[in-house]
Amino acid sequence: MHDGTSPPRPLHVRLASPxxxxxxxxxxxxxxxxxIAKYGAPxxxxxEIVHNRHxxxxxxxxxxxxxxxxxxxxDDRPVILSAHGAPKAVVDEARRRRMLFLDATCPLVSKVxxxxxxQHAEGYEVVLxxxxxxxxxxxxxxQLPEGAITLVQTEADVARLEPxxxxxxxxxxQTTLSVDDTARIVAALRxxxxxxxxxxxxxxxxxxxxxxxxxxxxxxxxxxxxxxxxAASSNSARLVEVALKAGARDARLIDDASALDWRWFEGxxxxxxxxxxxxxxxLVEGVIAAINDRFALALSEEPPVREPVTFKLPRVLAE
Length: 319
Description:
By secondary structure, this protein is α/β, with parallel strands linked by helices.
């Protein structure tokens, strides 16, 4: 807080639009809430339902139990698969154990699974552009037999790629990548393998694309861009990178207002503020309140971008 002896320094905060929850995240969270309401606690969730600590902790208080492996969930309680998608082996295990399982995989991730399976069935060698170790990548690679998908993370990986038949190569991408970085990798792939088959429809999801475009619109005018989101959130981490590449002098990924370091604000006149697709809007409000306590806040919001996408709950939970 300012000391009250002198007027607080002016600070302009520009809110990016759109920001925060996407349709896939909203659906996944509602699935956990509805499952607890319908079946009672505990309801088990394989992996964090979405990558946000605040969301996970709130659902844990409601009665969700988060596990990394189905072996840690009992047969007689509902289990929900996270929004990132799971390998086929996990679904097969849930069926074998006759578990009541609900799949909260984002429909746009499921689309990538279907696309990869189609490419494989048509005899293509499949390349997945994505980040090693991310659960979405693990889930997508787990849709096909071992060795059927090759992961490519960089243009250098493309240069090292040695497909069995360069004329029978196809690719899909993780949904939460940097649009610009992915375009460069795809260009490198097509330069080496001109016949590489693309997905029928863009894989990077609408929410990732829209949030990156929103940050690009404000970044060059900002001394500092703050991105609300967890470190494990791929789409949130990409927003920091996009902000810096688009001309922001500094950009930081923060969990919530408690992570603010006021030294970042020295000499700063304009701050951009956004949130990843798994970060609730209450976290944005908390940062605005914390800044307002220290500065003479001028708040402006970019013209709203409407996102009409919604995803229905499974029938068993919608009843």
